[in-house]
Amino acid sequence: MKPINFNGKRRSLLLASALAVSVSASAFLWLSPKTELIKKDFTVAEKQYTQLLKTSTDLTAFPRTTNKDGSVKTTDVWDWTQGFFAGSLWYIYEYTNKPEWKAAATKWTEALEQAQFLTQHHDVGFVMYCSYGNAMKFEKDPVKLAQYNKILIQSAESALTRFDPKVGLIKSWNAKKSWDNKTTWQYPVIIDNMMNLEMLCYVSKLTGNPKYKDVAISHALNTMKNHFRPDFSTYHVVDYAPDGKVLHQQTNQGYADNSTWSRGQGWAIYGFTMMYRETKDKRFLEAAQKAADFYISHPNLPKDKIPYWDFNAGQKGYTPDFDYNANKLSYIPRDASAGALTASGLLELSTFAKNGNKYFKSAEQMLKSLSGSEYLAKPGTNSGFILKHSVGSLPHNSEIDVPLIYADYYFLEALLRYQKLQG
Ligand code: GLY
């Protein structure tokens, strides 16, 4: 073997290659701030949901939020939030690729099987698409795939039972009293209902039968016509007569009939973006962008871009019909669930809109805020949920400033979308 000559050219060559090796090694170890953030959040998610899985062993009781004593509050299979736990488990599996998360996700998805027959309200799309819809991305077993698809087709049939062609929309709730007890809503449709349409589009693709997607399009077009105000803020509830005439435009979970409930505005941004993806109808893209512009440029949106529970809470010109003071709050709570789902919607919107970068940047700010100690739970706290500070329904004095399972779900979804986008 020839001895190494440490003089002249040979030495500088050696030094240069040593440097190159160390640079490429550190480049390999270096994670961008974005990757670091996503990694940190999923580390917290894994810890928290390990805890939640330990405390949630009854497959008929789906984690939703916390009770005052810190125990986990659950719902049964006929509510609207029961699909988000399975969905969150699928997202953790998507990020980690660890088989134990797939096993847990499968178990909690299959626990929802009977909800395919949910017809007493509109939320079957939320429940079944966040769970079985996500399962379709990861399940390889053809027998299971066929079974899941059959369940999704029945779920879409259940949704269609609530569609009256004369009205042109899926009825959200059966006739009921308005929140102020002054009106009886006959055919109430809420902005949230946009989120049930993705499953219908999927089932049309799956079966080749356009009827499901046709209903989705009809619903979205009528929602576009009647839920938006001229500034593209949204009414929460629109009530219809049997011939499709608009009877009332009100709220149920917002501050006042003329206010903008933050989560509802988020549902609009997300829902119309999704309908644009599914149809390429430019009207949906325009609606999504205008709703998003209202949201991100609103003077009451705090700097961290996590909204108050209602954009107009406590403001002059907005008169609540519930006793706002009865909630005995000394502050206006934020709604992290609205922040999380809006971040997810904006990230998708950023891929379609010409000026998409402003939506991307806003979403990025939302995710950074939600990843800070103000919103992200310290592992071992928050009863196993990931995010703090959401609001279910303040007028009903229910779930105020608590963790909510759907905040976690959309947060994880947004992180995964963020991971896939360059900005
Ligand atoms: N979809 C019900 C809610 O957002 O509270």
From TrEMBL:
- Tell me where the signal peptide lies: 1-27
Question: InterPro entries recorded for this chain?
Answer: 6-hairpin_glycosidase_sf, 6hp_glycosidase-like_sf, Glyco_hydro_88, UG_Glycosaminoglycan_Hydrolase
Residues at the catalytic site: 123 (nucleophile), 192 (proton donor)
> Which Pfam families does the UniProt record give?
Glyco_hydro_88
Domain of life per record: Bacteria
Keyword Signal in annotation? yes
Per UniProt, what is one GO molecular function of this protein?
chondroitin hydrolase activity
UniProt keyword Hydrolase, yes or no: yes
Transmembrane residue ranges: none
One Gene Ontology term from the biological process aspect of the record: polysaccharide catabolic process
Give the residues the record marks as binding substrate.
123, 192, 251, 263, 267, 393
Q: Which UniProt keywords apply?
A: Hydrolase, Signal
Homology family: Belongs to the glycosyl hydrolase 88 family.
Task: List the PANTHER family.
Answer: HYDROLASE, PUTATIVE (AFU_ORTHOLOGUE AFUA_7G05090)-RELATED
Protein name (database record): Glycosyl hydrolase family 88
Protein source organism: Pedobacter heparinus (strain ATCC 13125 / DSM 2366 / CIP 104194 / JCM 7457 / NBRC 12017 / NCIMB 9290 / NRRL B-14731 / HIM 762-3)
